[in-house]
């Protein structure tokens, strides 16, 4: 059974930094491309960062809205994926989720709330 547990969210001032973590189980993490998604009320969940599997070399991709500010990384031994968020903006306020990318598993974790104060 796939399990995804996000953590690290909180309230941060605009321009500040935050590091999100996602621990996983129930699938072979090292050969699974992963991503961070975010969702705000009334909007569809969007993929903001992805990282390819270990065999593909961990190539990263970012949405234009976060490029240059966010960094996704992974620890294949720990089955964990991270999102380093720097220079956060008010529009980064959302619930953040990790999942397989670009096609997600059916199940999702509870997410972690990031709130940026101006």
Brief summary:
This protein is mostly beta strands.
Gyration radius from CA atoms, angstroms:
13 Å
Give the overall pLDDT as a whole number: 97
| Biggest β-sheet: strands ordered side by side in the sheet | 2-10-9-4-5-6
- Overall, the morphology is globular
Task: Report the β-strand fraction as a percent range.
Answer: over 45%
Low-confidence stretches: none
Run of helices and strands: EEEEEEEEEE
User: Quick one: biggest sheet?
Assistant: 6 strands, mixed
Number of helices: 0
How widely separated are the two ends?
40 Å
Classify the secondary structure makeup into a structural class. Answer: mainly beta
* Helix amount: under 10%
**What is the number of beta strands?**
10
